[in-house]
Design brief:
Elements (H helix, E strand, L loop, with lengths): L5 H11 L25 H15 L9 H26 L6 H7 L5 H11 L10 H14 L5 H13 L3 H10 L8
Length: 183
């Protein structure tokens, strides 16, 4: 039996994001009535909740609060890179929001934003928000230098190990709790 963790649940939900099909579902209210009892792990709890809404209805993005979008883009970015590196992140539609993640990374220690900015530079300007355009550019870049993204992958792993940001994000969500939880 696998232990449940908010991060594992969020990973499973985010993985589903790349295989959306069918008509969008009716969007539920913007907040959950069930807040975690403690602040530890609230970031991954919220990522799981918001990513589920986005997975079920890609148009839900427009109905999310700015705070919910912030958490979603940071969560998707961190999960995708953890599970397959920046190459995986850029090959799926979660990276459509990489520029939003870059802006949201201002909440994190400076190294996080710097690593994401370095990875995004692979594409030049303007950043391609279309997954197929990104894939074409990424294929060309990696054909010339197959290890081009390895350095930023390792830099993010090092940051996650040496300057973990989950506690910071938990506190930020708790300080904006009205955007996420009823009551």
């Amino acid at each position: 039996m696998t232990d449940y963790t908010p991060e594992a649940a969020a990973c499973a939900t985010a993985r589903k994001r790349s295989s959306i099909s069918g008509p969008p579902n009716t969007l539920e209210p913007a907040t959950s009535q069930f807040a975690p009892a403690a602040t530890d792990g609230v970031f991954w709890f919220v990522v799981d909740h918001v990513a589920t809404r986005w997975t079920e209805d890609p148009q839900a993005w427009h109905d999310l609060t700015p705070e919910q979008r912030t958490v979603l883009v940071l969560g998707v970015w961190r999960l995708e890179v953890r599970t397959g590196g920046f190459e995986r992140y850029f090959r799926y539609d979660g990276a459509d929001t990489a520029m939003e993640a870059l802006e949201a990374a201002r909440l994190l220690p400076p190294g996080y934003r710097s690593v994401l900015a370095d990875a995004v530079r692979v594409f030049g300007l303007p950043y391609p928000t279309d997954v197929w355009a990104r894939e074409e550019i990424l294929d060309e870049v990696l054909a010339r230098d197959p290890f081009r993204l390895d350095e930023v992958d390792e830099a993010l792993r090092t940051l996650e190990r040496e300057e973990p940001c989950d506690g910071l994000l938990d506190a930020w969500i708790w300080s904006h709790r009205g955007a996420f939880f009823d009551g």
